[in-house]
Give the backbone structure.
Amino acid sequence: MVVNAANDNAGAEINQACAPTLFGEDVFVVIEGIDNLNDDSVDQLKSLIAELPENVWLLLTHPGGMKRKPLIDAAVAAGGEKVECKELRRGRDTTDFLIKEVNARKRTMTPAALNVLMESLGQDLPALVNAIDQLCADVEKDPIDEHDIRSQIDGTAPISGFAISDSVWERKAREALTLLRQSSLETDPGRLGVTTVTALTSGLRSLIAVGGSAPGASDNDIAREAGVPPWKVKTLRHQWSRWSGDQRKLAGMIVALADADPAMKGGVTVGSSLDPEQKLFELEKLITRASG
């Protein structure tokens, strides 16, 4: 049973859930946000923790801070285990977490594979962990690489704007257009346009940062400057090699992306908004111009 601690009658709900049953069945009660318990409910929970029946297990969640912290101390003093669940930030924190999940299954995964996985599923940690579990069960070779990820995910996960962006800055126009059209079958063109332009802009920003890095700079130094993980620098170096003689066109893409952003969000003047078909057409023109 799940109890919302913010409810005025949370204490009564907890007592009812933990009350003795006719056949003494095991009881598991989740109390969400114990910092929101009122004074009466706090007293009731403290009494329950002090004399917790053998067939009852409690899971208490707390967002951090000092409010109602004595409840945590009381639970630990009664034999409970305190588990700190720090929020995972995008980037290195998430990557390290996923690497541990892979290693826990006695497997390895290439950095490029992790990148494809995160770009396909985003920051949905349960989905990422489930995908790793499935991949480790289905893929026999080690390490698991990006081709294994794509073969498992293609057709089941929405195509990320960052996958389209990578194809564009690799100057693979046909691949980028194919990904765009596949994605348009699953995603509203308005939302697709915004996320794709955002990804293209981010990719261009990183590309220029790597291209403008000091000669002899290490991958770690470049990664810090560009705001990308170190393993991504190799990909960006390769992309830059395909553009280094065409920097005038890159400069033109900065302007084109700046114009595309408001167009995908509804236009900047009255009557300038585009319908879904027009947005998709403008995206195709943008990608063809950029990656050609």
Q: What stands out?
A: Residues 92-153 form a domain with the Helicase, Ruva Protein; domain 3 fold (CATH 1.10.8). The chain is about 60% helix and 5% strand. The chain has three domains: 2-77, 92-153, 161-291.
